[in-house]
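Input for the complex:
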Amino acid sequence: MIRYLLTKILEALIAVWGVLTIVFFVTRIIGDPAALLLPLGASAEQIDALNAQLGLDRPLIEQYITYIGQVFQGDFGQSFQFGRPAMQVVLERMPATLELSTAAIILGTLIGAVAGSIAALKKGTMAELIVMIFALLGQATPVFWLGIMLILFFAVDLGWVPTGGYGTISHLILPAVTLAVFVCSSIARLLRSNLLDVLKEDYVRTARAKGLMPRTIFIWHVGRNALIPVVTMIGIITGELLGGSVVTETVFAWPGVGRLIIQAIEAKDFPVIQAGVALIAFIFVLINLAIDLLYGLLDPRIRERR
Amino acid sequence: MSAPLLEVRNLSVVFDTPAGTVHAVNDVSYTLHDGETLGIVGESGSGKSVHALSMVGLVPCPPGRIVSGEVLFEGRDLLKMPERDLCQLRGGRIGFVFQDPMTSLNPVLTVERQLMEPLLRHRNLSRSQAKSRAVELLELVGIPHAKERIRQYPHQFSGGMRQRVMIAIGIACDPKLLIADEATTALDVTVQAQVLDLVRDLKKRFGTTVIWITHDMGVVAGLADTVQVMYGGRIMERGPVGPIFKTPRSAYTWGLLRSLPHGEARTQRRLYQIPGQPPNLLDSQQGDPFAPRNEFATPRCFHEVPPLVQVPDSTSGHLVAAWYDLPMALRARQEKPA
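Predicted:
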């Protein structure tokens, strides 16, 4: 087990390093930050001076080595825009992203699990058809469009909730629902197909032959086995949402990490982009590790192979 | 003789499939007495498993559908019983042992939990009582170090051991009737012999009535009191083991027995094989389902279903569904009956 964990951590470090490297070189391609930071009509000398100040005049390899070295000390450099440590800027936005994604995941998982179960247990009925149509629509609807429609209807027409912004629960409702629609559709569809597969398994027949109550069979014999792939999906979605749901955060003016990174890309604020992406990569890796461990809890065969 | 434990009357089961209606079980009737062991033999698709599963509501419905019949267990009709009452019977009064313990046990639950489930459901036991009973059961079916092994998962057991666990689950609540569906088919011969010994021992100790479903005539010979040969969803022949093996009256039984390897036959001639293919149960049947493969079939066999009747000159209870007279036909061909 310890050996397994160590391997996983090593893998994670390599993954994060890979992401850091790619981000470093990609940001260097997208343009010249000094030209953007200085007012229009700045002279070439002024641009060179700023580049020297930001350390962008040195050879790329030298920049890269310095950068990696600093990252290992937890230093992502100063934000070009804000003049403060880049990681600090990113972390300040984390609570908003965390709040939104947690709300969306919980809401989406609960509704998705119930809807998926209904669709599987009531196979061939109207209930299944309705659930599946909504799930398909939910998965296919672009998030930005749904977000705008929700704003138009609930915020502009009905005036029940604010159109955007951050602060109270009422600010959270629309963006959380927008994201939850996608989450719950994906989970409902996956869970339904898994449940239908598991319901055909011989061990479910054995459970019925034991005379167990339908509820016991569903929770212990069907549900648990059908959940294993769903856990993976929840993990992947969580990773995506925690990395900041760029579109939703932008539509609802939600001050999260996703929106920050978009702003940083526009401003060519390299340190913030790098810090943001590094954080997202780290979260992803952490969640993958958590899923792996959860697998072991759900399925003893996987636990044993370690 | 006392009232039968199980009485099946005119049971017919169909499956509604996109290709049409499959007539899986056709008008099956028989009785089973307390303490009797019934071996049901037949090839895949003969309806032997489906008829047993349909009796206790274990055939998925849809696509399965019970068209007609009565199944009286201790005098009560199982087919008319509400699901709640059936649930009480399953695993309690009626135990099951399924084929392929690899897939019939839940891979993510410990053997302990799977064994305790029927005990907690049907017996008024506390968790700790159920736990110790579960260990007893594992010991009873011959699993060494039961106390430690019970906490393991099915994949940590060998095939034979898993089948033993399956049997322990089947007999957990001392069922009146134990239905074993191809319980030894997935096992190699030595393990199969051990499992059969175990079942014989359990029968002797608890007087359990057993329905043993298999395609293996050899297993039936060693275990059953009564043999019931099924084909195309019908009973072709039924009776005490002795007469059936000595003087089979159905050409299908005769064919099954001839295709068993005998001591001398092994070296002298090729094993017999029944010509043709199993019937397509999609079409509604006319006549004896075995007629197209039957070298002794008479013209009547092809358009009229033979009733299952007592063989005139054989032991009481030896029934056959055939229009032809097998011993006579064999004598005419100068062949031994089996």
